[in-house]
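Would you be willing to look carefully at the protein I have copied below?

:::
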Amino acid sequence: MSQVAEAPTRSGVESYEGLRLRSLTKQFAAFTAVKSLDLDVPTGSFFALLGPSGCGKTTTLRMVAGLETPTSGTITLSGKDITWEKPYRRPVNTVFQNYALFPHLDIYENVAFGLRRRKSKEVDKAVREMLDLVELDTQARKKPAQLSGGQQQRVALARALINSPEVLLLDEPLGALDLKLRRAMQIEIKRIQTEVGLTFVHVTHDQEEAMTMADTIAVMNAGVIEQMGAPAELYDNPQTTFVANFLGQSNLIEGTVRGREGDVVKVDMQGTIASIPTERAHVSGTDGELGWVGIRPEKVLIAEVGESLDAPGSSIPGGVVSDVSFVGVSTQYLVRMPWGQEIQVFEQNTGRRRLFRQGESVDISWRPEYSFLLDHNQDATAGVDKEDAAS
């Protein structure tokens, strides 16, 4: 498990232009919320801290904002140490879930607030440009209560961005919106970030939100970063069971390593020999070592018994459909395998294949290049949503 996520530098003393956290720790009495966190956020990137409630992501954000004091460690921005700076002296602004707009001021004055406090001479031009950016130029004289939740969130963005912060911090900014509006705002916020080119650091527990918006995601768990990378990289090649389960869903099947052949690791997976690409095998690879063979549900193919499947290498017979859920774009199956485990299978409803029925015997298969292998010492249920698992 890696806590370190840093960009390469040519020397240890070279300053970093982005946001840099080093050995950042926050303790509350006997509880350590953030544990010796090392993190680099490149300038101009859309960066997401993703994790469940209590993992330390919001505490990390609040330390960057100056709203929490670190127990130890440093925070630098553009090479300047801001660890102990007062919040108002930091070149950062925060957008909160509850918007924190001034109800007695209209939208124009809410956005202008920061500039008026600094006695800026270009208030009107700057406010008009910012309202145009968030597509609220026709709403300038309305009060916050007259706007929808999505519009209020855009006002909060405009009010923060008009101060030209080096970093904009977003703390669960879409949590109060309904699903349809939240998805629309994900695209809108990403458009705004791309247009202004500022560094956005976004805290969320919503995997889809992070995947949709961020260039880079750091998955946090129990105060440390489990894995960091581009959304597709984390999803396709998770390095821990927590990441595999928290970022989407995964089938994890116990297996025993049977050595390496060329660029693959061979694993005896409940009697079937599975091939795992070495770059996706996160174990030592010692013969006899236990591991978790992972495969995403949408990568699993389901077929009638004996039917040929285009997935050589990991075909497993003897399954029985135990549950069928039609969800529109896909049908989600649970298939009980001979050793008792239920495998999730998501199949797109293209209309080219019939639906399987509960109780029907089937074979399953997948292409080996989609699988991954994880350390058996890790909990196979780590990161699983307990409510979903129980339902």
Observations:
- The chain has nine helices and 21 strands.
